[in-house]
Structure formats: C-alpha cells, structure tokens
Amino acid sequence: MKRAPQINIGIPEEQREKIANGLSHLLADSYSLYLMTHNFHWNVTGPMFNTLHVMFMQQYTEQWNALDLIAERIRALGFPAPGTYAEFGKLTSIKEVTGVPKALEMVRHLVDAQEATARTARDLFPLLEEANDQPTADLLTQRLDVHEKTAWMLRSLLEE
User: What would the pLDDT profile of 136-148 be if each residue is shown by its tens digit?
Assistant: First the structure.
C-alpha cells in the first residue's frame, strides 16, 4: 500500500496540526451559526417577518458557502475536517438555542453567535503569524470581515 506523499508547504506538521485544530473550532462555530440562522429563517414571525426572513436567508447562504472553504483549508493542511454533529458539539463555542424565540431575541442570539465566531477566528492569528501561513490568514481575514459586518447589521436592528 502506497503512503500519501509528505506535505512540504513550508509549515511543519506540528504547526499545521495546531492550525487545523483551530480551524476545526472555527468550522464548528460556523456550522452552528449556519444552523441557528437557518432555523430562525424558517421560524421567524411578527411585524419584521419579511425583513428578517430575507436577511436570515442571505446570512445562512453566505455561511453555508464558507463552510466548504474552511473545511478545504483544514484538508490542505493535511488533516481531516470534522463533519458530524457530535464533533461540532464538542468543538463549538456557540450555545444551542432551544424553542422558538421571538424575532428580536433571534437577532440577539445571532449577534452573540456572529461575535463568538469572530473571536474564534481572531484567536488563530498568533499561530498563523508564527507559521507564516498567509492562505489561512487571508481566509480568516475574509471571515472576520463578514462576521463583524453581519453582527453590526444585526445589532442595528436592536437599537431603539
């Protein structure tokens, strides 16, 4: 049986493993955020229904597309990407919402989840700088931009 060729991209295996582990946490947060947003899209009601229904759809669609980018970066670093609810449950920092909250409570939960996902991404930068890992830094910079902007837009709905 042939072994897979060794990965020689200029980042030692130990550093790649730490980065892949951090990205696995980001993937779990991102999936949890995706699922929460899609759930709220299905279940939102009230006077802001149309606005939130459409907004949530745009957000979960963007989030869905990001999952593949994060998982593929983990694979490019040479490690398996987590892909089960059990794995995501162990890795995520986002608390699951039970029941069906009122519309503005949904928005509050999503602000918290967007910010949590941004913090998870930001926590990786010291590892990336040490490893000189620009592709992962670029991915995380793009993700941070999305999460911070989305959190701001959601927070704007909560202002009186």
Answer: 999 999 999 999 9
Tokens 């939102």 sit on residue: 44
- Quote the CA–CA distance of 71 and 74 in Å, as a whole number: 5
Q: Is 92 helix (H, G, I), strand (E, B) or coil?
A: coil
Only one residue has tokens 């993937």, namely 27
Dihedral (Cα; 139, 92, 53, 44), 10-degree rounding: -170
121: tokens are 């991404």
Write the pLDDT tens digit of every residue in 97-128.
999 999 999 999 999 999 999 999 999 999 99
* CATH number of domain containing 79: 1.20.1260.10
Establish if 32 belongs to a structural domain: yes
Alpha-carbon distances, residue 54 vs 26, 27, 156 (angstroms)? 25, 24, 16
7 in any annotated domain:
no
Q: Are 132 and 11 in contact (CB under 8 A)?
A: yes
Q: pTM of the entire structure?
A: 0.94
Q: How many domains does the chain have?
A: 1
Phi first, then psi, for residue 2 (nearest 5°) are -80, 140
Counting DSSP H helices and E strands in the chain, the numbers are 6, 0
